[in-house]
From TrEMBL:
GO terms for cellular component: cytosol. Gene3D superfamilies: Bira Bifunctional Protein, Domain 2 (3.30.930.10). This is Unannotated protein. InterPro entries: Aa-tRNA-synt_II, aa-tRNA-synth_II, aa-tRNA-synth_II/BPL/LPL. One of its GO terms (biological process) is lysyl-tRNA aminoacylation. The lineage of its organism: unclassified sequences, metagenomes, ecological metagenomes. It comes from freshwater metagenome. Keywords: ATP-binding, Ligase, Nucleotide-binding. Pfam families: tRNA-synt_2. GO terms for molecular function: ATP binding; lysine-tRNA ligase activity; tRNA binding.
């Protein structure tokens, strides 16, 4: 599910996300308490908010930031057996470190914020740090449940981001995007400050229903072809 709120930023969307999850749990089960790994967690309590770079710094014991030389981050990744591709820049290496060292430990609701610009082409630059963005991902039980950010509404900056994505794609990054002229043309007409949110509904149902596997909540799961 996606939603957008005009004249809002990612902090407003964080507040909205907490409200949505709590209300969904109460409406479905009569309580804001859910069970995560046999531990009861009250979703009504304030959720942790922490930057990705701070989590990786805590996990490695070494201060990390996208402004650091790439070779320093490559060495840190190798030390922790994290694979780095040739096209990975500092921001992507930090994300790889986060996914391998931190993600699974985020059991209670946690907003991971401040993603590097390199891995967030549609998100607004952090107003306090040009290397990071106003973005968050929500993790519960070691799984990502939501992704959101202050939308980048400057067509000039967005074009530069797209062009950088195109270069990454040509360098071998299959996940990188291309220049989207239709989207840029729409931005040129004008877009107010906006916060956007995407929620994985299947995982939300898993959380509220206490399901152990996503297969338990998908209405039409993918099955093997029937053999006659």
């Amino acid at each position: 599910m996606e939603l957008y709120q005009a004249f809002a930023d990612y902090t407003d969307i964080m507040d909205l996300t907490e409200l949505l999850f709590v209300n969904a749990a109460v409406d479905a089960t009569g309580t804001s308490v859910v069970t995560i790994d046999d531990v009861q967690v009250d979703l009504a309590k304030p959720w942790r908010r922490v930057r990705m770079v701070d989590l990786v710094t805590e996990a490695t014991g070494v201060t990390v930031h996208p402004s650091q030389p790439r070779e320093d981050l490559v060495a840190l990744a190798e030390k922790h057996d994290v694979k780095v591709e040739k096209h990975h820049g500092p921001g992507k290496i930090i994300e790889e470190l986060f996914e391998h060292l931190c993600e699974s430990s985020l059991r209670e609701p946690t907003f991971v914020t401040g993603h590097p610009v390199e891995i967030s082409p549609l998100a607004r630059e952090d107003r306090n740090d040009p290397h990071l963005t106003e973005r968050f991902e929500l993790f519960v039980g070691g799984r990502e449940l939501a992704n959101a950010y202050s939308e980048l509404n400057d067509p000039v900056v967005q074009r530069a981001r797209f062009e950088d994505e195109q270069k990454q794609k040509e360098a071998g990054n299959a996940e990188a995007g291309t220049v989207d002229e239709d989207f840029l043309r729409a931005l040129e007409f004008g877009m107010p400050p906006t916060g956007g949110l995407g929620i994985g509904m299947d995982r939300l149902v898993m959380l509220i229903g206490g399901a152990a596997s996503i297969r338990d909540v998908i209405l039409f799961p993918t099955l093997r072809p029937e053999v006659f």
